Amino acid sequence: MILPTNTPGSAWKPPTPGYVPNYGAILAQDPGYIAAQANAGLSNGMAASNRDAAIAALQYGYNGAGNRFSDVAQANRAYQQAELTGTNSLAGRGMLGSTPGMSGEKSWMDKNLEYQKGLSIYGAGRSMAAQAMAALAAYLGTAQNSASSVADAAGSAYGRALQNGLYVPWSPS
To answer: Can you give the residue ranges of every domain in the chain?
Structure first.
């Protein structure tokens, strides 16, 4: 260990017995640790913004207010178009009358179309959830990497502090 001197040419004076350095204060002043904290804050902030933007875009794409191209709007539009086409087809064949047995086709068609619309919306919801989970996983990965970098920087700062003789705990032998 290199023993520091207080002033050039003077003899080194040991710290008071029982001296324990304030490693928290030493760490807080370490340039490497300060830089790692700043980088972690920047990375986490950018990752959180990306996550929030991705989730907002997914929500808007799924069923955003006023978004006529959303997944739910497209499923509703497909349902309405299929219902109109089916109703016109049944009417063209004379199957929409009030005669018993004539309305069964329309009821069956409506139930089938509702089922298909539900499947479409369900599939879009699952896709949105998977993409949201991917956005969250990317954010958490960044946060974990940032925390690891800060921990590594803290370890390095502690090591540098121990190399400096002024920051070594003192107990007389």
So the answer is: 23-164
Within 13 Å of residue 76, how many CA atoms lie on the same side as its CB? 9
Taking the alpha carbons at both ends of the chain, their separation in whole angstroms is 16
The CA–CA distances, whole Å, from 101 to 96, 97, 104, 109, 164 equal 10, 9, 6, 14, 95
- Tally the residues of the chain: 173
- Exposure class string for 124-134: b at 16+ Cβ within 10 A, else e: beeebeebbee
How many CB atoms lie under 10 A from the CB of residue 116? 14
Whole-number Å distance between alpha carbons of 7 and 13: 10
Residues 103-150: tens digit of each pLDDT: 678 888 999 999 999 999 999 999 999 999 999 999 999 999 999 999
Give the relative orientation of helices 104-163 and 71-92 as an angle to the nearest 10 degrees.
170
Q: What 3-state class would DSSP assign to 136? A: helix
Nearest Cα neighbor of 106 from 84, 121, 78, 74 is: 84
- The model carries a pTM of 0.71
